[in-house]
Hints:
The protein is mostly helical. The chain has helices at 3-36, 38-41, 51-81; strands at 45-46, 49-50.
Amino acid sequence: MSENKLKMQAYWKKNLRTLLILLIIWFTVSFGFGILLVEQLNQIKIGGFKLGFWFAQQGSIYAFVVLIFVYVYRMNQLDKEFDVNEE
Length: 87
């Protein structure tokens, strides 16, 4: 195999690893906190709202937006590391 092909395989492996980690976090926040653990989290109130309800209604959306920015930041790092950046 050529060096370039090995480099691209390593790039995609790190890319998929990053994507998998972020999807696991998103699943945990949205499904875990918003559905599975809602009763336990509802015992905690923040600003007058039950925490489980907040995660189901708002928290998973906020977490998703934060994960988008984390993904963009991480991909820019990977692009620079493997010299495939567009800058």
